[in-house]
Design goal:
- The complex is a heterodimer of chains A (about 170) and B (about 160).
- Chain A has 8 helices and no strands.
- Chain A has about 170 residues and is an all-alpha fold.
- Chain A folds into 2 domains: about 100 residues, Orthogonal Bundle (Rna Polymerase Sigma Factor, Chain: A), CATH 1.10.1740; about 70 residues, Orthogonal Bundle (Arc Repressor Mutant, subunit A).
- With about 160 residues, chain B is mainly alpha-helical.
- Chain B folds into 2 domains: about 50 residues, no CATH class; about 60 residues.
- Chain B starts with a helix and ends with a helix.
- The model of chain B has no long low-confidence stretch (mean pLDDT about 80).
- The chains are: A mainly alpha (about 170), B mainly alpha (about 160).
- Chains A and B meet through α1, α2, α5, α6 and α8 of A and α2 and α3 of B.
Chain lengths: ~170, ~160
């Protein structure tokens, strides 16, 4: 497989990998590193790519696992303070994209969700995968995904309603 | 779009029961400028989803194909260097071992001189051979030690 062929396979979903990584790792730099890592792993196993049924779903699963490992090692090293530093940095970068304050707020609410819910919302509401694909990617059954999704959507709506009513931002 | 319909969709949406198509309807509705006031809090949520969709991975991908390539040609290069070095150094070695006639004469002279020297040395060693007799005499004198035994006994205190 040539580089060009590989890029043709990877290009349609590399942004999705990046966005999932960013959803989990928060910091833009870390998400970029993670995406790079995942794609390089794919490239190194390029001879096996033809055997994969769904390269995209496979890469998303890889991304999920990679980010979980990252988060775990960070927790193990008690580097939470560093993590919040990254948050600060990424917020300013995020602001370039998200002009609206209340939109920014949604991002913060998403950050407070449990990891599984974050991923489900990311894959469904942002990337618009169908439930079958998400089930493969996250190794969950569809009912569990619906439940997680419903919880996450309700949480986001409730928090938004609160800020909307009290005008707290 | 009928507001009632949107409200129904929102309820389904929150229960995680909407299809992708219905979700798209909701996104379309909330991307409008004006939304029903009691549904306003949904607006940032859906616009956030739309904005997040656009974020892109901009980092360059370092896909190194050179690595495998290098190893393949490294062995070829090594063999080439090896063969070249053999080719270059072999004639030099042969050149060093060729001897001119003048050198041959010198070597022969040296050999003769050494032969004469060794002959004389051998002669010398043969003559010194009789010194071995002294050793023999030394062993014969050993019995004198026995004399000291009675003397020790006599002088014992």
């Amino acid at each position: 497989m040539t580089q060009l062929e590989f890029l043709n396979i990877v290009t349609p979903f590399k942004d999705k990998v990046f966005r999932l990584a960013k959803r989990l790792l928060v910091s833009r730099e870390e998400a970029e590193d993670a995406t790079q890592e995942v794609l390089i792993k794919l490239w190194k196993n390029k001879t096996k790519i033809k055997d994969y049924k769904n390269v995209e779903a496979f890469s998303m699963t890889m991304t999920k696992n990679f980010c979980y490992d990252k988060l775990k090692s960070k927790q193990a090293q008690n580097l939470k303070i560093v993590h919040s530093n990254y948050q600060d940095h990424s917020v300013s970068l995020q602001k370039e994209i998200e002009l609206n304050d209340s939109i920014d707020w949604v991002g913060k609410i998403m950050e407070s969700l449990p990891e599984q819910q974050k991923m489900v919302v990311q894959l469904r509401d942002i990337e618009q995968y169908d439930f079958k694909e998400i089930a493969i990617m996250l190794d969950m059954n569809e009912t569990a995904i619906r439940v997680a999704l419903s919880r996450a959507r309700k949480t986001i709506r409730e928090k938004l309603t609160n800020t909307h009513n009290y005008g707290v931002k | 779009m009928v507001l009632n319909n949107i409200e129904n969709l929102l309820e389904k949406y929150e229960n995680g029961e909407t299809s992708l198509k219905e979700e798209q309807q909701l996104k379309d509705y909330f991307s409008q400028e004006t939304v029903a006031p009691h549904l306003e809090m949904y607006k940032p949520m859906f616009s956030y989803f739309l904005v997040s969709q656009k974020e892109q991975f901009t980092k360059q991908l370092p896909l190194e194909t050179k690595k495998a390539f290098n190893f393949k040609w490294l062995s070829v290069a090594a063999v080439a260097v090896l063969m070249l070095s053999i080719y270059v150094f072999k004639p030099n070695n042969l050149g060093e071992t060729t001897i001119t006639d003048a050198e041959k004469v010198e070597i022969n002279n040296a050999k003769e001189a050494l032969a004469i020297m060794s002959k004389h040395f051998n002669k010398g060693t043969a003559q010194v051979g009789y010194l071995g007799v002294i050793n023999k005499a030394g062993t014969q004198v050993d019995y004198l030690k026995e004399i000291t035994n009675p003397m020790n006994r006599l002088f014992k205190r």
